[in-house]
Q: What sequence folds into this?
């Protein structure tokens, strides 16, 4: 490059190539140095409205991956766009810090296998410190990911779910529940994870991916009817260990049961299952000998076979008359197994309620590791599920065994540790959300979900309306703030640190915080009997912790302003998670059928390129920080939004980043550069040459008016699609405008007008600049939510370069609004006809194998009168775009087009004929124009500005025929490419020069300019 060119280059701040990584680094520094994020916070005062927001806090127990990134970009889009519209939104971060996921992560780090070992070897105090350290390590990675991704969330105002001030407000929600009698202690059957040693909520049981195929014994066994010689009930189970806690049998009262004679024995079962069960047992010789209604079996006693090795079972019979008897229950399913079910109220929900209703004692001899206690006799100390085959053997020894086989079935496992869950009757604390379910549903119905499918999934889940088990037998969590009197059983709920300090029996030490073990050391004096009150040894479900955020993360004043929030978005897996707990807690807090959010977008999950779930074991997890080391954040953001609907499962394919996304962003970059280069040359002043000026100066042509009209349509369309969360459609609107409208149509139509520097055409050039300025700047602003780096770079380097008084950052600029006055639907319709006809003309060329760059002498358009009117009106564009010299318009096909000299194509009622003959003069001109375009590109590439006049252009190694055809046009070409002279050479060797490779019709040619 010559010195002069270097200077030309430095006139504009946009480098020749679009290098997003470098650009992003520079913009990141710009944002930090100029505190742009902080300046956005100041906009609350003059905001046109407040839009509440509360961050769905990521759990700090894992590395941020591309699925997280996708969700965070959706949030950021909303924030940037709404801010530009003039709203204020508290886009403040939040971190989920406590609970099982964090505990398990830290247990793994510490090399601890279970809770007992944890308590013995590590101790609670150190464990809590380790949990805090662990979340801080992950927090660093999340900060880095947000920074690199360009997520403009306010990190300084982040909330942390483990901080005392947050916990106190969470306690206040519990207090509201307590006052409404919605928080109770109860002995219920809950799902329990033996690995994590804690109970789970029913929401967690249904969590994504928790059902796994497992193998269990399928056992048929028989209980003998007391006092009979040879009559038995035939029963089936996949959990033989529950026979240890068996207390009753149940039948369907309205169904017909039969006696089946098998060998010397009579087995009782439901009639409709006789054949399939006998087939399964491979019994061919049997006979039905009698029948009865289920109801008539009620009260029948049976001999529980294991009384000798479980003495407690014998004792139970003395406690209640229904123990080891048959009862009737409607929940008994007569379409599976034998229609006789054994009930273990200590291990099953239906069983439990059946016993509760009748006052039958609950037998649940399990410790925290789900091992049997001494009440289970011989089985003492054995893990429940490990007794399955011991039980089978004992039944065999006592003539109670029929058959066992292994069966594969779907069974719920712990969503964290994947241990098989066990249902156990335990003493737990429950939020009686079942009592407020109608309010919850009413609230949920009022919320906007944008898409039908996730809405139905969410409402369907909420309809289950079960009580919420919120107590967890863990350590790192919000302590359940209930103290119970040792003497009289009186209970008290404490809702703040102050209240706790005031009521403590002893002074509270310095390092006190609202966590175990410190909070457990505080005892209170009972108001009723002066006895000592101790805290119930539970922490809260972590979903309760994060679900408190709309209240707990704000002050009272902020709650007034920002809740219910305007819009939230999280993954589809949060239907049972955060979206649910937010709603339940808010209904409890307010007592009203209102949600804490007005709209909720559930996002689809992100998978790998092959559509597989990302997992550590497959090694296919795309980590955000690693990805962004070598890839542009803008490209990732654009790609993730463009690829599919936000609710779709997305297959993230890194190969695709540099295809369409790169093409679109790079095109916008180069169009902006093209505009700036030309505008700078002509000293374009956007304050002087405005759109208004162009209208008044009467300089606008049809193509300009069409561009303006299209742009208004796109602004409206894009904004509406963002509002509907159809991000993929919205981005496609911009994509189309940049590539098709601007780059493929508008710029080629006006480009030639910018090649000159004649003073007579200066006004026309300024008009084009005004138009490009308006269109490109608008697109830059519209792109900001999706590609904030590129938008900021163009805003700074193009628009603030031309107009230094513009707001400091693109984020402080105003969102474009469509101007209805310059919308011209008639003109748009005319252009549609024009562009359609042009594409038919291209098809006709293809028929005749006539390259688009070959000028042709004539085209004939056969179409209805209305279409022809439009084409005549836009004739110069039509000729230009189709590259023909003249056109004829007619309603009837002329007779003379029958011969071989014409080729045609038809679509609908439009037919286009083009002359199929090569015309040597026109061909020469065609080659010339083609080469001129390549020289123009090279000029730009080398940094020449339009006014630079080249000394000479050399073209080498064209085909002989092309050289002959071209000869008469060399002078015209020199004018077009702004060179004193153009030379042709048979071979490169003829001149000593730096040659640039190019091609013409698939043949390599060489260019030199200087
Ligand atoms: Zn678990
Ligand atoms: Zn008391």
A:
């Amino acid at each position: 490059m010559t010195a002069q060119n270097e200077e030309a280059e430095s006139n504009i701040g946009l480098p020749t190539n679009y290098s997003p990584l470098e650009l992003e680094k520079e913009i990141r520094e710009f944002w930090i140095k100029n505190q742009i994020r902080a300046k956005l916070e100041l906009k609350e005062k003059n905001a046109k409205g407040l839009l509440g927001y509360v961050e769905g806090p990521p759990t700090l127990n894992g590395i941020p991956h591309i699925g997280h990134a996708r969700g965070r970009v959706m949030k950021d889009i909303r924030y940037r766009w709404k801010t530009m519209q003039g709203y204020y939104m508290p886009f403040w971060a939040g971190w989920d810090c406590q609970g099982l996921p964090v505990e398990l992560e830290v247990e793994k780090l510490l090399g601890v296998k279970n809770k007992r070992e944890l308590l013995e070897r590590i101790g609670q105090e150190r464990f809590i410190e380790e949990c805090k350290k662990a979340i801080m390590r992950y927090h660093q990675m999340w900060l880095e990911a947000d920074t690199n991704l360009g997520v403009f969330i306010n990190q300084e105002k982040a909330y942390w779910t483990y901080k005392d001030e947050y916990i106190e407000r969470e306690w206040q929600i519990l207090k509201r529940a307590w006052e409404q009698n919605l928080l109770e202690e109860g002995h219920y059957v809950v799902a329990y994870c033996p690995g994590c040693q804690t109970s789970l909520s029913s929401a967690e049981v249904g969590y994504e991916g928790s059902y796994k195929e497992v193998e269990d014994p399928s056992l048929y066994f028989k209980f003998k009817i007391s006092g009979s010689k040879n009559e038995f009930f035939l029963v089936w189970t996949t959990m033989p260990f529950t026979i240890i806690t068996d207390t009753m049998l149940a039948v369907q009262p309205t169904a017909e049961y039969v006696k089946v004679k098998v060998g010397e024995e009579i087995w009782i079962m439901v009639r409709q299952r006789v054949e399939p069960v006998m087939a399964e047992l491979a019994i061919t010789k049997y006979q039905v000998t009698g029948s009865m209604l289920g109801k008539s079996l009620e009260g029948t006693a049976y001999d529980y076979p294991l009384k000798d090795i479980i003495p407690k079972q014998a004792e139970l019979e003395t406690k209640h008359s229904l123990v080891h008897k048959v009862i009737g229950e409607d929940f008994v399913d007569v379409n599976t197994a034998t229609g006789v079910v054994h009930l273990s109220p200590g291990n099953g929900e239906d069983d439990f309620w059946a016993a509760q209703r009748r006052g039958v004692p609950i037998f649940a001899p399990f410790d925290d590791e789900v091992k049997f206690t001494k009440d289970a006799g011989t089985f003492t100390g054995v893990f429940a599920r490990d007794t399955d085959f011991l039980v089978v053997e004992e039944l065999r020894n006592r003539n109670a065994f029929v058959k066992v086989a292994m069966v594969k079935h779907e069974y719920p496992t712990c969503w964290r540790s994947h241990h098989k869950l066990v249902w156990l009757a335990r003493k737990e604390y429950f939020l009686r959300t079942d009592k407020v379910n109608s309010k919850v549903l009413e609230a949920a119905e009022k919320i906007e979900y944008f898409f039908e499918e996730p809405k139905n999934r969410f409402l369907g889940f909420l309809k289950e309306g079960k009580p919420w088990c919120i107590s967890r037998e863990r350590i790192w969590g919000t302590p359940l703030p209930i103290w119970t009197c040792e003497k009289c059983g009186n209970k008290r709920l404490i809702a703040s640190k102050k209240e706790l300090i005031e009521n403590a029996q002893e002074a509270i030490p310095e390092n006190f915080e609202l966590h175990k073990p410190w909070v457990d050391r505080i005892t209170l004096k009972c108001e009723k009997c002066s006895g000592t009150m101790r805290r119930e040894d539970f922490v809260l479900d972590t979903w309760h912790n994060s679900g408190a955020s709309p209240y707990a993360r704000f002050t009272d004043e902020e709650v007034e302003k920002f809740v219910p929030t305007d819009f939230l978005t999280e993954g589809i897996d949060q239907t049972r998670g955060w979206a649910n707990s937010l709603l339940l807690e808010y209904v409890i807090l307010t007592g009203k059928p209102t949600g804490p959010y007005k709209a909720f977008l559930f996002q689809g999950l992100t998978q790998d390129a092959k559509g597989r779930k990302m997992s550590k074991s497959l090694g296919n997890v795309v980590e955000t920080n690693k990805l962004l080391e070598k890839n542009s954040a803008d490209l990732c953001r654009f790609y993730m939004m463009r690829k599919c609907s936000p609710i779709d499962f997305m297959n993230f394919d890194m190969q695709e980043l540099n295809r369409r996304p790169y093409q679109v962003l790079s095109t916008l970059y180069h169009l902006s550069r093209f505009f700036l280069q030309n505008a700078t040359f002509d000293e374009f002043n956007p304050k002087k040459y405005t759109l208004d000026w162009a209208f008044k100066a009467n300089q606008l042509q049809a193509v300009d008016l069409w561009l303006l009209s299209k742009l208004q349509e796109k602004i409206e369309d894009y904004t509406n699609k963002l509002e509907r969360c159809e991000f993929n459609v919205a981005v496609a609107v911009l994509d189309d405008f940049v590539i098709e409208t601007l780059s493929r149509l508008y710029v080629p139509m006006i480009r030639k007008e910018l090649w000159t520097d004649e003073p007579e055409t200066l006004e026309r050039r300024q008009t084009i600049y005004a138009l490009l300025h308006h269109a490109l700047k608008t697109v830059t602003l519209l792109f900001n939510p999706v590609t904030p780096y590129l938008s900021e770079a163009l805003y700074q380097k193009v628009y603030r370069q031309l107009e230094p008084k513009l707001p400091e950052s693109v984020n402080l600029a105003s969102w474009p609004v469509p101007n209805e006055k310059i919308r011209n639907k008639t003109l748009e319709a005319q252009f549609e006809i024009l562009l359609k006809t042009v594409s038919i003309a291209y098809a006709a060329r293809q028929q005749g194998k006539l390259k688009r760059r070959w000028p042709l002498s004539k085209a004939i358009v056969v179409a209805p009168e209305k279409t022809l009117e439009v084409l005549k009106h836009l004739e110069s564009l039509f000729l230009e775009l189709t590259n023909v010299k003249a056109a004829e318009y007619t309603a009837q096909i002329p007779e003379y087009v029958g011969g071989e000299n014409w080729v045609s194509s038809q679509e609908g009622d439009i037919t286009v004929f083009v002359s199929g003959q090569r015309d040597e003069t026109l061909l020469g001109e065609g080659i010339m124009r083609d080469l001129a375009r390549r020289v123009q590109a090279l000029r730009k590439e080398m940094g020449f500005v339009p006014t630079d006049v080249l000394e000479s252009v050399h073209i080498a190694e064209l085909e002989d025929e092309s050289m002959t055809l071209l000869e008469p046009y060399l002078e015209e070409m020199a004018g077009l490419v702004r060179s004193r002279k153009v030379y042709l050479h048979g071979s490169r060797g003829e001149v000593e020069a730096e040659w640039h490779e190019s091609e013409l019709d698939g043949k390599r040619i060489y260019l030199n300019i200087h």
